[in-house]
Write a structure and sequence with these properties.
Subcellular location: Membrane
Number of strands: 8
Membrane topology: Multi-pass membrane protein
Number of domains: 3
Organism: Candidatus Harrisonbacteria bacterium RIFCSPLOWO2_01_FULL_44_18
Number of helices: 18
GO molecular function, one term: phosphotransferase activity, for other substituted phosphate groups
Main location: membrane
Radius of gyration: 26 Å
Strand content: 5-15%
Shape: flat
Order of helices and strands: HHHHEHEHEHHEHHHHEEHHEHEHHH
């Protein structure tokens, strides 16, 4: 099931690579006819380097996210913006990195950009139509009804490009009369996946009925598993304690061994390279607001242990005269340009020190204040599990969920945090860092 998604993404990548090199070949043909071998080699390696970076830019920009593959205004804007960024990168490399990258005449680059831009948009539009209109690779039968199944059905129906189709839905669950005719329904609708909530799967009668149909080649999938694939978060309402024992108790030994020294190295390098910017921010805060430049606050860290977190102060010194408060979207306590610092996360630069001290990771669930943790632990099941690992400066919830300051928002973010706990890896950490960098530029506007 997850393989289908990866195959579709791989097809997009392969298509982009083919169009990149085909556009280069057409550019050289238009300029030189059948170009000599020296001309081909002269262009091949510089453009190959550019292509590798472009594919990364496309990935960061979400052009390989199946949920965005729709021929609408949002896609056209996203595609245009990402292509402009990629083109700007190529122009900077070829025009300013001399003599390493010399393409003569440089008009070749602009011919290539025009050819690729047009052909790539045509390819993407064709693929989007094909993915949305083509026959779904997975035809699904769902047993049971609750808010989680409704969210899943709505998302699948709105995004046919994901390759799923809801063919039958037994909303009454175990009481559904159609359950007795399961075999006929599977055959009539060519169903290959049955999605079942955990509590129904445990029922002996339901298990027997489903078991009888395994010979039809069906795949039985937990509702929580399909929800995780489609939404990239974990549906807490569908989980029981045994799920956490099976999915969170396992150790990621190599990952844990290498993560800490890599983070120390990166925090040191980032700190040195951005120190001039940090000094400017500190001077600005001192000019526009009285009080200290650095703001300290207690946060709950790994295993719930409290630690002191450091930030550039973006609020008035008396911001919490009435007690601890969640920061709001348009908070009146914020100093001039404080919102820009917060949205761009530049206010978190001092937290590099927390990384060096071993209190924070570069990537992990964002730490909350102990006062809030105490209340949220009472209101939200499994909330304390986010403290199993060291908290981070950025995290999966931060790049996938809007800014929020309510119990409902904390619940949603926890579903993303649990997803990270289950799937954490070097690759996922790199993805989060890359997408965080993108957010630094988009959210600060």
């Amino acid at each position: 099931m997850d393989t289908t998604v990866k195959l579709k993404q791989s097809a997009l990548v392969v298509g982009d690579i083919i169009i990149l090199y085909a556009s280069l070949a057409l550019t050289l043909f238009l300029r030189y006819g059948w170009p000599a071998e020296e001309i081909v080699k002269f262009h091949f390696w510089p453009f190959t380097l550019i292509f590798a970076v472009w594919l990364l830019i496309f990935y960061i920009g979400g052009l390989y996210d199946l949920r965005s593959l729709k021929n609408d205004v949002d896609f056209a804007r996203r595609f245009g913006a990402i292509l402009a960024i990629a083109a700007l990168f190529a122009i900077i490399v070829f025009y300013f990195f001399k003599p390493t990258f010399i393409i003569t005449p440089r008009v070749n680059l602009f011919i290539f950009l025009a050819i690729f831009g047009l052909s790539s948009y045509i390819w993407r539009t064709f693929y989007n139509n094909l993915a949305s209109a083509g026959a779904p690779s997975d035809k699904i039968l769902i047993i049971g009804y609750n808010q989680t199944t409704q969210e899943l059905v709505d998302q699948i129906n709105q995004n046919p490009q994901l390759g799923y189709e809801i063919k039958f839905w037994m909303k009454e669950g175990l009481q559904d009369k159609e359950l007795e005719h399961l075999s006929q329904i599977i055959l009539a609708n060519q169903i290959n996946i049955i999605v079942v909530p955990a509590h129904i799967k445990k029922n002996s009668n339901a298990a027997k009925l489903i078991y009888k149909n395994l010979v039809l080649g069906i795949e039985v999938v937990n509702l929580a598993d399909l929800y995780e694939i489609v939404f990239q978060k974990i549906p807490l309402a569908e989980l029981e304690e045994v799920w956490f024992l099976e999915n969170l108790a396992k150790r990621h030994r190599l990952y844990e061994i290498f993560k800490r020294p890599i983070e120390i190295f990166l925090a040191t390098i980032i700190g040195i390279l951005t120190l001039p910017l940090a000094i400017l921010i500190a001077l600005f805060i001192k000019l526009v607001s009285s009080g200290s430049v650095i703001f300290t606050q207690q946060r709950a860290g790994q295993n719930g242990a409290a630690f002191t977190i450091y930030k550039f102060r973006t609020m008035r010194p008396d911001a919490e005269k009435d007690g601890p408060q969640w920061a709001q979207k348009d908070d009146g306590r914020v100093i001039p340009l404080g919102n820009m610092l917060r949205k761009s996360h530049l206010d978190e630069w001092p937290q590099l020190l927390n990384i060096l001290r071993g209190e924070l990771s570069l990537v992990g669930p964002r730490p909350e204040r102990p006062e809030f943790v105490k209340n949220l632990s009472k209101e939200i099941p499994y909330y304390d599990l986010r403290h199993l690992i060291r908290p981070g400066i950025t995290g999966w919830a931060q790049i996938n969920y809007r800014y929020g300051a309510s119990i409902e928002d904390a619940y949603e973010k926890l579903q993303y945090d649990i997803y990270y706990l289950k799937n954490r890896s070097v690759v996922l950490d790199i993805l989060i860092v890359i997408k965080t960098i993108r957010l630094l530029f988009t959210s600060a506007k």
